[in-house]
Amino acid sequence: MNIPKRFRFSAVNAGVKSPDVKRADMGLVFCEEQAMLSGVFTRNRVKAAPVVIGQELVGRGTARAVLANAGNANACTGDQGIHDARFLMGTAARELGVKSDEVVPLSTGVIGVRLPVERMASRIPALVSELGDDPEVFARAIMTTDTFPKIVSRSAGNAAVLGMAKGAGMIAPDMATTLALVLTDAVVSKQELDTMLKRSIEHTFNAITIDGDMSTNDTLLGLSSNQVTENISEIEKGIAEVIRDLALLLVRDGEGATKFVTIAVEGAANERDAKKAAMSVANSLLVKTALFGADPNWGRILAALGYSGVAFLPEQVFIDISGHRVVERGMESDGFSENTLHALLKEREITIGIRMGHGPGAFTSYTSDLSYDYVKINSEYRT
Question: Coil, helix or strand for 319?
């Protein structure tokens, strides 16, 4: 694993959701030098306290640490939520010997409940004293319904890029999704880092969906310790690859998911229309349940295209599922085989290819199926 220079990691148990929770649920990333800071956030009008603060700190452009917790979103908690987040930022800053506004807060979990600030603050000294070289401890500490920690690393020439993320549900992105950190030791300016993140997310974090719900806490942060001079194209390539792989890991770990589904649209009038069409199919509950049941119901795909808001002629539509032609010119194809398609839909990975017409627009989205377990996980999440 390529770990960027000057970054350290730790995690502790703070019983954030409940004192009965015994796993690590509070994590810290610390940079021994002032780090360049960038970030993208949810566009949900209901924004959690750490998002409001994070947007302010990203505007300033530098940071030394990220303090994260799982189990409590600190969302819909009003001015008290802002105060609680700043209290913890200040506590961490004193222990680290940095300024309070150099600590970026991240939270994920239940909405509408205050953070147990005293319990959390009491564990911050241990969080600081246990800083080390293993990023997995932090990646595990931010997990909620995730089944595995999501960590990806790449070399960018002589520089390193490391990404960590959490997320398995409530994923319908708009600028970012879930909680994610991308760290590098490459020398980059604030403007360069901003540009790299925004370019990278459009076809990655902004192309995935699990359930059509957008979180109040979605955040993707980028930090650079500025230790290694490297070609800017190498740095951007490394960051883009890490962000892409993190995004796909989120889909593979979708709540209750049994299928990883790629939806590739081409022939639209432009990329914007292609994306609307792809995401309409990806978010369709009827399509997702058919995928779970390995039901060859191609009509649901065509219907989702029809209500996507994209102008097209149904008689120009062709659809393939995992290489098997199911729709030709808006009707069932002559070679359609129920048995063949049923077998293909039982596979773990499925590709839906859609040609909408003869335009230049293309876009690929990624989603999962919708299973019984998704309902079970989310019906019991608060309790």
Answer: strand
CB 363 within 8 A of CB 271: yes
**DSSP label at residue 213:** P
Helix, strand, coil shares of the chain as percentages rounded to 5?
Answer: 35, 30, 35
User: pLDDT tens for residues 196-231?
Assistant: 999 998 888 888 876 555 667 889 999 999 999 999
Q: Cβ contacts of residue 370 below 8 Å, gap of 6+?
A: 211, 256, 285, 288, 289, 291, 292
Across the chain, what does the average pLDDT equal?
Answer: 91
User: Locate tokens 């779970």: which residue?
Assistant: 292
CB atoms within 10 A of CB 342: 13
Of 91, 144, 145, 177, which is the active-site residue?
A: 177
**Token code pair at residue 243:** 């962000």
Q: Is 351 a catalytic residue?
A: no
- How far apart CA 367 and CA 381 sit, in angstroms, is 21
CATH fold, domain 260-379, is Ubiquitin-like (UB roll) (3.10.20)
So what CATH class is 7-252?
alpha beta
